[in-house]
Amino acid sequence: MSNCIVYFNAGANYDYSCSLNYCCTTPQPTGGVGNISLDPQLASASHLSFLSPCIGKGNLAAASGVDIDGEPWANPPSIGCDEFHAGALTGPLNVAVTASLTNVIVGYPVALTGLIEGRTDLSVWAFGDGAVEINQPYVTHSWSSTGDYPVSLWPSMIVILTALAPPR
After folding, report:
1. Fewer Cβ within 10 Å of end Cβ, the chain: N or C?
2. Is the pLDDT of residue 79 over 70?
3. Which of 82, 86, 75, 2 is nearest to 40 (CA)?
């Protein structure tokens, strides 16, 4: 595998007989080159967030054509199917959440999946108890006391503004 994110699988992320180069996975492969084992910081299941350590860490020789959005690869390209382009967030955005359970006993974990279609460069989960998760398409959460908790998932677009000193 080359330029791949193989990270959130249950059990092993890859078979030790695999050859991985310029991949984001855990545990860190003992062979291959350019691999990283940091959380990929995905804004959705298919798109990198602006915080992703995968940006610019791929191998150009393994990137051909365009990314999942039809955009050109950077040099060096990102690891994964999406090349991060700041400010290229246009088009429709659809968000849905699936939950493994909707009624649980205190302390029992619920698996949640964020289904985000469209371009976003950040996603934030809020669990109604003050806890948040950032850039995680798949999360597990449990609550420490009884009650009804609204769970929210926000896709977002970050705009960076620079304030300059006024002219003299």
Report:
1. C
2. yes
3. 82
CA dihedral 70, 61, 5, 90 (to 10 degrees): -20
Region of 121 (left: φ > 0; alpha: ψ -120 to 50; beta: rest) is: alpha
Predicted model pTM: 0.77
| Alpha helices (H) in 15-156, listed in sequence order | none
Report DSSP state, residue 137: S
**Long-range Cβ pairs for the range 13-22 (8 Å, 24+):** 21/59, 21/62, 22/57, 22/58, 22/59, 22/62, 22/79
CA 128, CA 122: separation in Å to the nearest integer?
A: 19
Six-digit token string for 151 = 């769970």
The tens digit of pLDDT for each residue in 84-103 reads 887 766 778 889 999 999 99
Can you say how many angstroms the Cα of residue 36 is from the centroid of all Cα atoms in its chain? 15
**Lookup: tokens for 86:** 């700041």
Q: Which among 132, 141, 142, 115 is positioned nearest to 43, based on CA atoms?
A: 115
Q: Are 156 and 121 in contact (CB under 8 A)?
A: yes
